[in-house]
Amino acid sequence: MKAPTRRVKGKRREDGSAENPPKAMKASAAPETQMVAACASVPTSSPNPTGAPAMEKRPFAKLLLDAINAHKELVQLPRSEPITDAVRVPITSGSLQVEACPGSLLPPILELPGIVVGSDARLALRHLCLRAKAGADQGHPLIEVRSGGFLELADCRLEGAGLKLHPGASARLLRTRISGSKHAGVSAVDTLDLSVAECEISNCNGEGLHATSVKNLRVSDCTFSNNMQNGALVDGRAGESSFSGCTLSANGQFGLWVDSGCSVSWSRNLLVGNTLGEVGGRGSLDQNAEAFATGDACMVWIERVGEWVPAKVLEVKDEAFLVLAEVQTGKGVDVTDASESASVLRRTRQKAPEPSPRVKTEEIQVPADAVRLPKSSEEAPPVWSKKLEAYRRRKSAFLLFLREGGKGAAAWKALDPRERGRIQAKARKEHRDKLEAPEKGKAHGVHGVSFAAGEASHARPQRAENRVQRPARKSAVFTRTKHRI
Question: Right handed beta helix domain location, by residue (predicted)?
Answer without folding.
Answer: 155-269
